[in-house]
Amino acid sequence: MLLARRWTFILALKISPRKAYIEAALPSRVSAGLLSSAVRRPLSALGAVAYRVVQKGEAGRVTEADSEPAHVEVRGVSLAFGRRRVFDELNCSFARGRISVLMGGSGTGKSTLLRMVGGLQTPDSGSIRVAGQEVEGLAEAGQKGARLGMLFQNGALLDSMSVFDNVALPLREHTKLVPGEIADRVHDRLAAVGLADIDDLLPGELSGGMLRRAALARAIVMEPEILLCDEPFSGLDPPNVSRIEALLTHLNRDHGLTLVVTSHHMATSLRLAHRIFLLRGNACVEGAPAELASSRDSAIREFLGKDGDEYLAHHQPEFEAADS
């Protein structure tokens, strides 16, 4: 019946706007009959169990888009601050070349998880791997800057340094580039985020949108594979939210960057994300925006709110065509 190289179970959710169920299947050649009779549970019965959502494929097959390798893997991660437990054996993974958006209520650990992926916070237990290597090992091998870039909340540029020096700082600290090469790289990244002729300005002399774009230029100046963005839309007016959204989409689509983004901005997150990771109850509920918007779990639908309803209504014809 089964031809399996290893006994490792994958948890895969097949979902459409009208039905949702869990299927437990082996990563091996499994007959269609066996797969169709796999264990199934309603989405509303999942509670706080972490699970992976995939689009429906043929005869229970995981679609190509959802079988992409994980670029970041979080396995069995636990963390507590004093008596407050933030994560209890959290498991999730972020696919290579995709935009993953972390969402959840205040205090659910979105920014904390991002800091752990970036190596700025150490979990009490568990493993965080980037491209197959432990995050701590990246720092020890001097590869962290080449793998990971981080856009901090509110930019976090150094107030006493010019924009040019802020963006150039990682290159000066971690590369052997000569000044001319550094200048070329800095100006290239500033141009990529739509900024010019601001080399000598201090961060305090920039508008909120310009400050965020300058911080984004610094985050990508080392040409990272993965970009971590902590609340990139926070405090921005609608035009600047749209600019940052367009820049992040461009970095992913045209340059292949893997993005992991925390956000409270629901409408933008639904448009931006390939997959949304909803942190709740020390666990992670994962799905494509439309899949979560059509969830049978009322708590998920309420969290997405009217933005989720509008997103689902806008894309409903596509879902019906895929489900037919």
Topology (SSEs and partners):
Elements: E1 10-16, E2 19-25, H1 32-36, E3 53-55, E4 70-81, E5 84-95, E6 99-104, H2 110-117, E7 125-130, E8 133-134, H3 135-140, H4 144-147, E9 148-151, H5 163-174, H6 179-192, H7 208-220, E10 226-230, H8 238-255, E11 258-262, H9 266-272, E12 275-280, E13 283-287, H10 289-293, H11 298-323
Parallel strand pairs: 1-3, 6-11, 6-12, 9-10, 10-11
Antiparallel strand pairs: 1-2, 4-5, 4-7, 7-8, 12-13
Helix pairs in contact: 5-6, 5-7, 6-7, 7-8, 9-11
Would you write up a description of this structure?
Helix 5 crosses helix 6 (179-192), helix 6 packs across helix 7 and helix 9 (266-272) packs parallel to helix 11. Mean pLDDT is 76; it is low at 1-66. 36% of the residues lie in helices and 25% in strands. A 6-stranded mixed beta sheet has the order 9-10-11-6-12-13, sandwiched between helices. With 324 residues, the protein is an alpha/beta fold. Helix 8 (238-255) links the parallel strand 10 (226-230) and strand 11. It has a domain at 95-287: 3-Layer(aba) Sandwich (Rossmann fold).
Descriptors for this entry?
six-stranded mixed sheet; Rossmann fold; 324 residues; alpha/beta; 36% helix; disordered N terminus; four-stranded antiparallel sheet; 11 helices
- CA radius of gyration: 21 Å
Q: Which band does the percent of strand residues land in?
A: 15-25%
Q: Sum up the overall morphology in one term.
A: globular
Helical run tally? 11
Taking pLDDT < 50 over at least 5 consecutive residues as the criterion, the unreliable ranges are 1-66
Largest sheet entry: 6 strands, mixed
